[in-house]
Amino acid sequence: MRLAILGASGHGKVVADTAVLSGWHRVFFFDDAWPGVSENGPWSVIGRTEELVARASEFDGVIVAIGNNAVRSERQHELLAVGFDVVSVIHPSAVISAHAGIGAGSVVFANAVVNACASIGAGCIVNTGAVVEHDCVVGDFSHVSPNAVLAGGVSVGHRVWVGAGASVKQQVVLGDEVTVGMGSAVLRNVPAGHTVVGVPARSVHYQD
């Protein structure tokens, strides 16, 4: 089993490590900084995006390992448009309910929990130790950072970033492109585009 990873980043190293632990035998990186960047930790970077497209038949799957939600979305859609099989990668220590759903291109890292009837969209990151409780819905290309907790029934929009150690109260709705600051406690709904920080979390910024 050969996996191509687009994005030779620190995040990409964790994706690669998780992929190997979950059964991918060989992992190769592609990054548009190649050939200036020729390795990412112990893994080789062997080309840019165009080389990946040209060598598509050599791989059993591909995943985008770019931390920026908007860029990850753009690149995953580009790969899907040219016919790639975009796969998900799940760490063997993650606990995923048999009644949860994980979208294409998503990653679930070590010790994360996705509980019953939760739904993770396409291209999401459920990072190390994060908890997505029962009946949560996480929109496409969102990132639940390390040790963040979404309590039961939380609804997360598209391209949302929930910072490390943050908590979101049950049934709260986070609109599209919301950012939740590290360690924040979100107790009420957050409109699209807002950044919220603090305990309790309050809005500090709005994107037009």
Short note summarizing the structure:
The chain contains three helices and 24 strands. Helix content is 15%, strand content 29%.
Descriptive notes:
The chain is of the alpha/beta class. It is built from three helices and 24 strands. It has helices at 10-21, 49-54, 69-81, and strands at residues 2-6, 26-30, 39-40, 43-44, 61-64, 89-90, 95-96, 101-102, 107-108, 113-114, 119-120, 125-126, 131-132, 137-138, 143-144, 149-150, 155-156, 161-162, 167-168, 173-174, 179-180, 185-186, 194-197, 202-206. The protein is globular and about 50 Å long.
List keywords for this structure.
208 residues; alpha/beta; eight-stranded mixed β-sheet; 3 helices; 29% strand
